[in-house]
Structure prediction request, 519 residues.
Amino acid sequence: MQQPLFILSEGSQRTRGQAAQDSNIRAGKAVANAVRTTLGPRGMDKMLVDSSGDVVITNDGATILNEMDIEHPAAQMIVEVAETQEDEVGDGTTTAAVLTGELLAQAEELLESDLHPTVIVEGYHEAARLAQEAIDAQVLDIDLDDDILEQVADSSMTGKGTGDVAAGTLAKQVVTAVRQVADDDGAIDRDDIHVQTQTGASSSATELVEGVIIDKEPANDNMPRSVEDATVAILDMKLEVRKGEVDTEYNITSVDQLNAAIEAEEGELRGYAKTLSDAGVDAVFCSKKIDDRVAGYLADAGILAYKNVKKSDAKAIARATGAKRLGSLSDLDESDFGHVEGVRVEKYGDDELTFVEGGSAAKAVTLFLRGGTEHVVDELERAMNDAVDVVIAAIDKGGVVPGAGATEIAIADHVRSAAAGIEGRKQLAVEAFADAVDSLPRTLAENTGMDSIDALVDLRALYEKDGRAGIISTGRAGEIGDPVEHGIIDPAAVKREAVESATEAATMIVRIDDVIAAE
Prediction:
């Protein structure tokens, strides 16, 4: 008899066939169900408490999934779907996760009916192609003016934590910020829109700053607290005594030699301040160290200076002011500096923030978010970041479509109609895809307080009649209507990415029939 051949290490666990598929699908469905109740304008929040006791309260799908301590590899793939959705378009993470879970649930039933995983995968990919066709057909033929973009931002923030300020008010600030940083060709650099949070006031105190805010205090207490019509220098160099590249020792044998050495050193440090002052500089942002004596000389010259400024902040200030980042103070020219209407230091409790406003370049803005507690400003920050992302997605990535579940109803109808012309068992998978997409408006209806079955029937009926139907949240309940008339609009890119990423994740999980886990 032959000796048994061991390929896997001792202690490895192997799950094969239907058991592996069932385990993976259950894990994926469980993760999707965890965020299902957060979908829509009346979605609920989740409280997430980590091992150290830190608390996060949010209904943002990506945040919830990132904060959850998920170990199952298939479930982790749902988290990756949300991360991809967040990275690509900034919103729709819950939609993508829920759709992935529903595709897995439908696949589970097909597998139980002895449909081969390959057939399911082929059907899902065909259905996803049809879904993209339906999304393209739903793109609204309208100009993306400020009113439309404000509706996009408002729709994104509705139902999220915005404190005591209406989402519509914040939406105006978001659109203004996006328009401010757009160049002459309409191109938008997302990095030019910054978000700064500060507790100590209500959310209604949130404002748009045309410039940047840095969490820094002046290098010397005697420096001015503000300078107006300021010339700005950004330095990537140390303002301290220069050191040789090799270790050198000097033998000083008299007091005169010591005094001369000290005077030479002081002269070098004083020279930094004099050079900047003679150049007409009013504010200095240095990414490296400033010697305390140099800071004192700068204060004497009336220059407001900051040391150890983060590289990202230095880059933002350069964009806001038009200043170049200098590695030397030799051969300075007027074109090396930036100009702003003002630089000022504001105190908030024990914190000091510096505002750099009104830059001549004006290619950087900051949404300065306020809130009574850390939980409030954190959730407001997530909502505002999502709103900025969806407005940019609407401009750059293919326009807008009706929200409130209307696009999903159109997708399901188109996929289901096309399924009749598909031969073989693949037709079953295509129809299952349509049923999975139907779960999104059904979930919206449930979270709005409506009967999900009645709502789905009414949505289909109105869609057949008018070509557009969504779930409109009204007071404590909801109604079926035209979302465009109610200003509920989403970027088409959010829908496209959700369909694509959910399909890829679901098909990948369905194809797995062997799980090998090492201890």
